[in-house]
Amino acid sequence: MQRRKHLLSFFSFFLVFSLLSGTTAASSEDACDPRSLPDPLTFRPDQLTVLISGYSERRLPLLRSLAAGYASLPSVAAVIILWGNPSTPSHVLSPLLSSSSKVTLVRDPSPSLNARFLPRAAIRTRAVAVCDDDVEVDHRSLALAFAVWRSHEHSLVGFFARSHDLDLARRTWIYTIHPDRYSIVLTKFMILGTDYLHRYSCWTRLAEARRLVDRQRNCEDILMNFVVAMAMAAEGRAGPVTVLVEGRRVRDWGDPRNSGNSSSSSSDDRHGDAVKEQEREREITRVGLSARADHRKRRGDCIREFHRMLRVMPLRYSYGKVVEGLGEQGLCLKGAKLVFCDRD
Question: Disordered: where is this region (predicted)?
Answer without folding.
Answer: 252-288
